[in-house]
Specification:
alpha/beta; about 200 residues; eight-stranded mixed sheet; Rossmann fold; about 30% strand; single chain
């Protein structure tokens, strides 16, 4: 079972539909019991970094999510990707989950913010297994970006500056764009995440 974390700030229904298309059992939950039973944890997010951290703290999910990310595959989507980092500067300074070294700050660009729309992925160092997604278009909605060491960056996009689009630290992944709104390309990206973090198929039931 794949668990989508419900903390009141995620595009959870569309994310659930995307994983259902791939044939997985999916549950939207903030129950620690169900999160413990899941094979994979998905952390979506729409809104501000500060508000998301407050919601996660109010639901007593901060420490459990940090622990679970060390035990099972973990994917942050959009704001959920930003929460993977140590600190965010949206509406003040807030501590994130600290799963990937780095910080989240406003995109430095002459273009209009927020960055809304389709943009091409540039795969770093021909990174496998994402190499086939070079120049593929995915859908972004954000004003803030991750700032992290190059070794954690799988793919970028250009929006007047280089913006990390996919990040990875072991079995922890992040996608700044919305794969659930990116058509077949987005579904295929989620498929790669699942294949790269494959566990015993019997655990999906």
């Amino acid at each position: 079972m794949i668990a989508i974390v419900d903390y009141g700030m995620g595009n959870v229904a569309s994310v659930r539909t995307a994983f259902l298309r791939l044939g997985y059992e999916v549950e939207i939950t903030d129950s620690m019991e169900r999160l413990e039973q899941a094979t994979h944890i998905i952390l979506p997010g729409v809104g501000s970094f500060q508000a998301a951290v407050e919601e996660i703290n109010q639901r007593n999910l901060l420490k459990p999510l940090r622990r679970l990310a060390k035990q099972k595959p973990f994917l942050g989507i959009c704001l959920g990707m930003q929460l993977l980092f140590e600190k965010g500067y949206e509406n003040g300074i807030s501590d994130g989950l600290g799963l990937i070294p780095g910080e989240v700050d406003k995109i430095e660009t002459e273009y209009i913010l927020p960055h809304i729309g389709w943009n091409q992925l540039q795969i770093e160092n021909n990174n496998q297994p994402f190499a086939s997604f070079q120049d593929k278009h995915v859908y972004f909605v954000h004003s803030f970006q991750a700032r992290t060491d190059q070794k954690y960056i799988v793919a970028t996009a250009d929006y007047g500056s280089t913006v990390p689009g996919i990040v990875q630290n072991g079995q922890i992944y992040g996608m700044q764009f919305h794969p659930e709104k990116s058509g077949e390309v987005g579904v295929d990206l989620l498929k790669v995440f699942m294949e790269e973090t494959k566990v015993d198929r019997g655990q999906y039931a």
